[in-house]
């Protein structure tokens, strides 16, 4: 059984036991989050249910493992012959979650 969920403006294909790194979620490590209005597609072994826009009654449970920061990205801007150089770094705040349960009620 798998589902396609939408969170933080992105879509993910998840199965039970899948580990994801999502944008920072306001939840403590060890908490369980349920996604009800963000399941776009749900697939059993024999049947696929497509939502319009979401699947009614579908629930995906996520357990928060830890909060972390992504790799450092360098943003460098330069205009030649103008002595303009601008260097900035960015690290995205992330949350690592594990999918614990997918069900349709």
Automatic annotation (TrEMBL):
GO terms for molecular function: rRNA binding; structural constituent of ribosome. PROSITE patterns: RIBOSOMAL_L21 (PS01169). GO terms for biological process: translation. One of its GO terms (cellular component) is ribosome. Keywords: Ribonucleoprotein, Ribosomal protein, RNA-binding, rRNA-binding. InterPro entries: bL21-like, bL21-like_sf, Ribosomal_bL21, Ribosomal_bL21_CS. Pfam families: Ribosomal_L21p. SUPFAM superfamilies: L21p-like. This protein binds to 23S rRNA in the presence of protein L20. Part of the 50S ribosomal subunit. Contacts protein L20. PANTHER family: 50S RIBOSOMAL PROTEIN L21, LARGE RIBOSOMAL SUBUNIT PROTEIN BL21M. Belongs to the bacterial ribosomal protein bL21 family. This is Large ribosomal subunit protein bL21. It comes from Oligosphaera ethanolica.
């Amino acid at each position: 059984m798998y589902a396609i969920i939408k969170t933080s403006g992105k879509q993910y294909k998840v199965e039970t036991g899948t580990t994801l790194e999502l944008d920072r979620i306001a939840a403590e490590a060890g908490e369980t989050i349920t996604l009800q209005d963000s399941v776009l597609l749900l697939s059993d072994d024999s049947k696929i249910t497509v939502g319009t826009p979401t699947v009614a009654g579908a629930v995906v449970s996520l357990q928060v493992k830890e909060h972390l920061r992504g790799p450092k990205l360098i943003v460098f801007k330069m205009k030649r012959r103008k002595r303009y150089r601008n260097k900035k770094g960015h690290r995205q705040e992330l949350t690592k979650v594990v999918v614990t349960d997918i069900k349709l009620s």
